[in-house]
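go over this chain:
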Amino acid sequence: MANAYKKAGVDVNAGYEVISRIQKHVNKTKRREMMGELGSFGGCFDLSELNIKEPVLVSGTDGVGTKLLVAKKVNKHDTIGIDCVAMCVNDIVSQGAEPLYFLDYIATGKIQPDRLEQVVAGVANGCVQAGAALIGGETAEMPDMYSEDEYDLAGFAVGVAEKKQLITGEKIEAGDLLIGLPSSGLHSNGYSLVRKILFEKHALTGETILEEMNQPLKEVLLEPTRIYAKQVLPLCKQQLIKGISHITGGGFFENLPRVLSDNLACQIDLGSWPVLPIFKALEKLGNVPPREMYEIFNMGIGMVLIVSKEDGEKVQELLKKEGESSYQIGKIVPRKEAAVLLTEDFKP
């Protein structure tokens, strides 16, 4: 079947095999609002099933970046899909939206059904963590665009929020507290520098175990990005959160100002949370200036919640009850020049 196309480098039968393989993973993500089955031209989702008076749809799209090259280097593809979901849903959660559904896009030079099943299994796992349905996607085989062993992955998330409960940051004021939620590691950012430091400059391998860590590098580097939907959304519904910043590419300096007005700044108290060993290792091996580390990486904080001083203790107690660690990492101050200030004056 489709022999001419196969001779051109595209195997449609391999694509059909992928669809058959991934069905069991997709089924794990089902929500009652889903309509139809996988394989339709478009994924359908019944909004009338939602108990929301003034629904606002919030959408986001992202990829995994060069973390994919680490997955390829060590031939481990079963968690990279979680990263893709996380990068999208954490962004919409930052506006107080509940993730509803997700679509993925995988482009490759040659469809390898076993590997693509691993990737989509990770996507489905991420969707389960986020509470989102995987309602569709696309796998494109493009032999002239990618080499046989290459693939790229992108995702698209849609969520919903009650209009009056959207997190806009407009109520943030000086004196509010910054509550940091721990990351699991690098998440999905800074891997161009990470690879240059570890694999190019120092010629390390995925099996290398650095003295700062008790795991091989391949496990540390491919630790999936955390998904914060189920921890944060209950706080949003209780209207305890004034602002949320997802700490992704650009670290603290790029992401925190996105939720602030021009007259406010974030003061970050260095030492108020445990910096993960991977960051200390990268700073040392790459001779990266400390300040620059906070301009690139999350440094152990994956999401920052901005709450009133009066609600800070309550928010941390609620998070603790749900098994979530949190740290008071700073506060909102009047802006004089910089939007983000790092201080080492923190006294435990």
Summary: The chain has a mean pLDDT of 92. The CA atoms of residues 12 and 98 lie 36 Å apart.
